[in-house]
Fold this sequence. Notes:
Layout: H1 4-9, H2 16-19, H3 36-48, H4 66-78, H5 89-100, E1 101-104, E2 113-117, H6 138-146, H7 150-161, E3 164-165, E4 170-171, H8 179-188, H9 210-224, H10 232-264, E5 275-276, H11 286-319, H12 326-337, H13 341-356, H14 363-369, H15 376-403, E6 413-414, E7 424-425, H16 429-439, E8 441-444, E9 447-450, E10 453-454, H17 455-466, E11 468-469, H18 483-502, E12 517-518
Parallel strand pairs: 5-11
Antiparallel strand pairs: 1-2, 3-4, 6-7, 8-9, 10-12
Amino acid sequence: MYRINEILIMAIKLNKEESLFRNELIFTADAKAINIDNVLVNLFMLLKHNGVRPRQRANSNAFIDLQTLDRVFMKLEEEGSVKGFSENKEAAELWMRSNLVNMVFRGNIDKEKISSLRPIHLESYRVRNAANTRDYNTADQVYLMLGVNPMVKEDLKNFLMEGWDPVTNKINVSEGLDVDSLGLLHIIKNIKPGFLDTNTSLNQIKPLLDKQAQLYCDDVRRLLVYKRLIPRNILIDYLKTITSFHLSIYIQKLVYYLPKMIENGSIDVKDDWNIVLDTTDNYESKMAKLASDDAENLTNSIYDYLKSTFQVNAALRRLKLDKNDSLNLKKALAVLKERPFDFEIYFETQWDNLYNSIEEEDRVLIQDMVKYEDTYFDKYIELILKARGAYQYRYNVQLIDNLSQKNNERGFMAQGRSKKHPRRFVLGTRLLETLVQILVLEVREDRFATRTLSIEELISNIKERYGLIINGLSEERFKDADLNTHIAFKENVDSFKMKLRQIGFYNDLSDAYILQRIRPRYELKE
Length: 526
């Protein structure tokens, strides 16, 4: 283990560029505590304004609370837009709290505050308390991923905009909106959007993991097929679930692939990432050990991911390239693979500057830490890691926990309170429901239609599409599995069937194998 505490005592004087970890060419988000509702609110803003985050107008910076919304609905009642608010004020406030607004510290009377309107319509972002709706640039990553398929991005935007005429800025009731969306639009109809005063470089950047971005777009496209069959609020919930799911897989794959990209000098690496899911909901099950081993491998690999990111950042500085063009990332990887002579000279200077800024009595400790590094570049990167690594490690673990919806039915990670029950990959029922809705669709002559699936087909599709292993006995990594592993996977499959029964997709009351199939909840004809 590195002597982190000793390093923190030292005053390693990194400049702003050296200490900066976030690189939009790799992953746009800062490693912070992420709330997926805030991500969607900011995503809707980006979709509306083609990748630009508009500033709020000066007169819209006033704090918004339930009393403010009460006054809005009272005025709407006076003008005849709504009826019955004053007579049913208590019920209306309960409706607003549960269906219309997101809150921080919800349920704590002294601390709870409205963060924004719920992300159920593209215009939701207009009413928000910006300080409580921060997404730390995570929405930028989703926007980039949607950008690999402009048709899907536009279809999503059109679906989210339903009920609002962007030309006249008026509600279009002919589109048959649900009551929540209609209430939200009445709130925002007299609020002007923010103003645009900055350019964006987002549209020049392509997601580093193109295949993963394409998969996200395909999942969004499949969900939108149901837009006339599934209630809007449920479909938005599916969108939220799948977005968080894909963001988590994306960063987990970055942790796995980025060091390999550095080693290869190219973004082209073998796509062989996978993880084992425990579907038993039992911390003590045989499957829990396999799933927690994969979660431990992830957290153990974060240090190499941090190092790789700092290496790319340093190479970009050396090449004097900005983080606004994906071609620059490829140039940085190439120079890290085949380092030219002047590359080392530049980083010798950078190392000297940092080393000389350290107190003389601490230099012996620093020299001991870098004694196994062969080049000044590697010594320089190691010193940056000692200064910033512990901080970034802690918050990147937190980021992955949040995006994986840890201990939530929308997610696929769980952790107990005891050290005996570490992180492990699981399968929440709401996430499973979303995945099944996606996977029961197939393309027939350029159109989607629903189909039935056997358990084996569903398990295989989840593995092939997402890299999530439920029954791993056919996987190369388990080819020499012992008896306990065989039993573990059998129990896992049985628990998976039970989860499918719980959400109403599977019934095996008949002994006839042909009837034991997953059946679509919503039939979609060709």
